[in-house]
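Researcher: Good morning. I'm working through a list of sequences from a screen, and I'd like to move beyond sequence-only analysis. For each chain I'm collecting a predicted structure so we can compare shapes side by side. This is the next one on the list. No need for commentary yet; just the structure.
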Amino acid sequence: MAYVRKDVSTLTRTERRRFVNALLELKRRGEYDEFVRMHIDHYTADGETGLRSAHMAPSFLPWHRRFLLDLERALRRVDSSVTVPYWDWTRNRTNTSVPWTPDLLGGNGRRSDRQVMTGPFAYTAGHWTIRVGVTDGKFLTRDLGRAANPIALPTRSQLQWALDDPVYDVRPWDSTAVRGFRNKLEGWGPGSGSASWRNHNRVHRWVGGVMLGGASVNDPVFWLHHAFLDMQWHRWQLAHRSHRYLPASPPPSGDRQHGRIIARYQRLPPWDVTPDQLEDVSGIYRYA
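Model: Good morning. Structure tokens for this chain:
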């Protein structure tokens, strides 16, 4: 029977505690750091060579769906009552609302070095030392809202703008695509600076700290953010039932995206699964 992923703002005190404790146990076992390492390994940008499976590509959504499922399965091996909650950043929009509470993810980083000093994931609590990253930093950092150069979280209307596009993705299948649900949700826009960061990308920028790079998994809010994005893919599917993941076939030889993106029936590294197989997960979980 399918289990339920809930809005983090609706979790009971016990559900919050069990979710946090399961994360801390994965960290204690060393399992959590493997998820960080996997995300870094698959963080390939447009300008690099080789296959792009996790970002700036059509497979952004199925890749993270499977990634999230793997983490959730690991959590449920620790505590079978736990599921990954989602953070609706169109509703909970301040740096003191959920999930930034002492019993969940803790709060903002301190001004001097952005180190998170509150909650169970604070370095000073002794349970969350960063061991895998793109810098030598050992503690979790955040800069919620970017105090020095403020930005706002995406709005409901900005999210709806992505959901209203009936086509999943379009050529050239990368961060420059100006149409298509995938890139509008992933959030690569034209130009530079804060105006070019939309939806998914803008949330990473708003949180700041370790959420800014390939090692963003080091902040547990990564999972709550991506659960909400996964929910939006589900909403898009319901709204556009005749449309599916694109491209259906791999770009041909000579195309600049040949061998660089995943088509609907191709294997999605590092797993033996295709985007086609990840389009319907209704038998595994649902959203409340």
